[in-house]
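Re: export button greyed out
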Amino acid sequence: MEHALSLFVRSIFADNMIFAFFLGMCSYLAVSKDVKTAAGLGVAVIFVELITLPVNYLLQVYVLTPLGLGYLSFILFIAVIAAIVQLVEMIVEKFSPSLYNALGIFLPLIAVNCAIMGASLFMQQRVQLDPENVKAIANIGDAFAYAIGSGIGWMLAIVALAGIREKMEYNDVPKPLQGIGITFITVGLMALAFMCFSGLNI
Amino acid sequence: MALSKKTKEAFLGPLNINNPVLVQILGICSALAVTVQLKPALVMGISVTIIVAMSNVVVSLIRNSIPARIRIIIQLVVVAALVTIVSEVLKAFAYDVAMQLSVYLGLIITNCILMGRLEAFAMSNNVTDSLLDGLGNGFGYAWILVAVAFVRELFGAGTLLGYRVIPQSWYVANGGFYENCGMMLMPAMALILVGCIIWAHRAINDKEAK
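Workaround output, generated via the alternate export path:
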């Protein structure tokens, strides 16, 4: 339990998907123009991450490793992610139209979000670690903790950037730097700030 | 063979005016993460170029028989198969670089450049154009990677491709005046460098447009 908690906190701050690994950058930069949509996409990422990562964990531990099919992991993981995104989209549409309207347009985007695939690939590396290591994912509980932590970390990052970009509308930025250029530099400075979490030890 | 204007455009556009990284802002994740040193950046650039070109060709070949509803999954499977082949080849012939690239090699699958090109170009164009478009986008991506990695490795570690460029005797530790810029090795600097390249690119192209 303690280990899962530490994994959870580390994956939000020290191993933040955006600021430490640059995963999910494309949608991060494209959809961070206002806070509301950014939060919507963030929730969708947490949701999908929470389902796909434990499924991929089970596949990795109980199917791929015993059968020695490690090289098939890319195809299997992306197929699982694409299938689950499709499934989640259909289920949400049927049972909760209001949630579907809120998340709707983002769900298909998420199938190709690197943060989701990246989390599964990091999980694949981390199951091989020594269980004492703070980064190890030793059981299904850890997989859930890591999934929700990295999802929340991603959401935190996109909402923070969207807030800054909303305020930046009023600033006098040099013309060629406007838009995407200044966004890159902002994210760079945010990443510098987030680096102070890298020594975090719980 | 005279190339038509459109074919030429498909290859040359992505190198500068329509660069996938600088203008379309695609494929940023891996562009930033693998650029601490020149060698992994070079390998990554070449791998992506091969995969974009090949997947463009494959999808363009089968474009008429893909049902529209499940095209995303089919495209993903084509890309994932190619990425698996490239990653196995790299593990066999360049193990240390493959380890340095770690998850980012697998993440070529979700690289937006690939899906973007497949959706926007290969699904509606013939094989030759798709091949050139893939090569163009791959090289457009690779040169940004190499440019960023060049600056980061030169100023961050004083080496290029692992060879020492700035002589040891210049360093403060050996009685010289020079010190490596440790900032360059940090992930944040990749973002700031790409931001500056975009700045320069826009400034130059806007002037030409006027």
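The first helix of chain A runs from residue 2 to 12. The button fix ships in the next patch.
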